Amino acid sequence: MITHGNEIEILCGNSNRPLAEAVAKELKLPLSEAEVGKFSDGEISITLPQTVRGKDVFIIQSTSSPVNDNLMELLIMIDACKRASAGRITAVIPYFGYARQDRKARPRDPITAKLVADMLTVAGADRVMTMDLHAAQIQGFFEIPVDHLYGAPLLAKYYKNKMDENWTVVSPDVGSVGRARNFATRVNASLAIVDKRRPKANAIEVMNVVGDVQGKTCLMVDDMIDTAGTICQGAEALIKNGAKEVYACCTHGVLSGPAFKRLLDSPIKELAVLDTINIPEEIKNHPKFKILPTAKTIARAISVIFSDTSLSAIYED
């Protein structure tokens, strides 16, 4: 039987300590010191210096790069808390890695998102909190409760004061239309779609733009930007189709490989991302990038879970 006491314990691994510190500050709680290191052969070593017996433990850890190290850190920290008799263990995963492998797109493909969900459950997590899964149906891969937070309200709040009737929200591909439509509704803007064809992996060919972007300021909306190929080629297509300016935003700034250079060379005027992933200082301090905080939202969700009250108010906001 899962129970929890009258104390919250906030732990974190190495993936995004600044976010964990900000969440703890919002909750007016100390960030517990977990000793996270490695043996000489690369094995991850976890030690919890303080007791967690009977406590409601929240482990804040995004499974961002280095993905496998951060995932193993999270699994081992969950196991350590379970064996130390924590009352309840919540894995707070602001960015859930491996979410792109959520189905068998081709014969013999793995469904890695399900595998990771099973690993978290077997390790001992009692529930999971995450933000903007790449595919919302991944919630159903878990045999434990999942609290799915949304980044759109934070991004919409930032852009709403900037936008007027000359702005258009743009989906960078057909798969993101639902997300872009929801965002457009929030900011009361029109919607356009970049229709692209992907002939092979990591090769993107933009076909056309569906919707009126002539003379418009366009805001491209996505859940994550990895190598930035889709978003940059989409921005170029919008400019070619008469857009005046192009902005972009996403929840998760993975920004791997050539992403930084591509974004600098692209016609995108500004990219706003949430801090679910710890962004390198080089990018964080560049005037073309805006990093928006998620600590208040995550801290509020932790408070709601701890008090066993409803998350509906957060979803409605």
Comma- or semicolon-separated keywords:
single chain; 317 residues; alpha/beta; Rossmann fold; 2 domains; seven-stranded mixed sheet; five-stranded parallel sheet; 10 helices; 32% helix
Structure description:
There is one protein chain. The chain is an alpha/beta fold and 317 residues long. It has 2 domains: 8-150 and 295-316, Rossmann fold, CATH 3.40.50.2020; 152-292, Rossmann fold (3-Layer(aba) Sandwich), CATH 3.40.50. Helices cover 32% and strands 27% of the residues. The protein contains 10 helices and 14 strands. It has a 7-stranded mixed β-sheet, sandwiched between helices. Helix 7 links the parallel strand 12 and strand 13 (268-274). The radius of gyration is 20 Å and the shape is globular.
Secondary-structure blueprint:
Layout (H helix, E strand, L loop, with lengths): L7 E5 L4 H11 L7 E4 L5 E4 L8 E5 L6 H17 L4 E6 L18 H12 L3 E5 L14 E4 L2 H9 L6 E5 L5 H11 L2 E11 L2 E8 L6 E9 L3 H12 L4 E9 L5 H7 L2 E7 L6 H4 L4 E4 L2 H12 L5 H5 L1
Parallel strand pairs: 1-4, 4-5, 5-6, 6-7, 8-9, 8-11, 11-12, 12-13, 13-14
Antiparallel strand pairs: 2-3, 9-10
